[in-house]
Amino acid sequence: MGSQQRVRRSQEERSRTTTNELLSAARKLFARDGYTATSLDAICEEIGASKGALYHHFKNKRDLFRAVYEAEENRLSSAIAQTFTLHEDPWDGLYEGMREFLVMSMEPSTQRITLIDAPGALGWAEMRAIRSDCRRMIAYGLGQLLGRDRSRAEVTAVASMVHGAACESAVALAHADGDADELLEATLRQFRRLFSSVASSTDKA
Fold it and tell me: Which domains are assigned to the chain?
């Protein structure tokens, strides 16, 4: 490897390190103080970086928050996928994946970023676009479960219903007035009934 390549790689590594440090600091402060109350100065101070360094990686606070939100959504999607693969029965895997998604969504930091602040900071259209990978993953899993006798439109419809129900359930849990754990278990019972119904209709098809 030539000296120029080594310099370039070193610069790229430093750039990735700075990006990760900014994302980590931003997540911490957004989760603790909220989007509106968190300043870029505070984020830079958290890791001892200049605002110039921040602006080299992110256009503004909204752009930084979007990256944090996207990382949270990827974390949730990965948890669903990993949980799904751990179960021999795919329907059990899907159910446990939904459980993991909802339990993780109840973490205060995740709630604050993805459910409380994201709608105002990003808007529903951008949130939906970022969540598209999760919907596609659910659609893929359901496609395997429902079999080839189901049309693509039907699989997409069921996937959208499941994903929408999961997201709305997470919002309900975030704003629960009473016992959130009780609401979680009630929600999961409804998911179990839903999956049992869809699985039963598949067996009869």
Answer: 1-58 (1.10.10.60), 61-204 (1.10.357.10)
- 162-202 pLDDT, tens digit per residue, is 888 999 999 999 888 778 899 999 999 999 998 888 777 76
Residue with tokens 């676009």, as numbered in its chain: 129
How far apart, in whole angstroms, are the C-alpha atoms of residue 116 and residue 194?
27
Q: Angle at CA 97, nearest 5°, toward 31 and 177?
A: 50
Q: How far apart are CA 185 and CA 167, in angstroms?
A: 16
Across the chain, how many H-helices and E-strands are there?
Answer: 11, 0
Tell me if 194 sits within 8 A of 127, measured CB to CB: no
Q: What is the dihedral of CA 25, 30, 33, 38, to 10 degrees?
A: 80
- Global confidence as pTM: 0.85
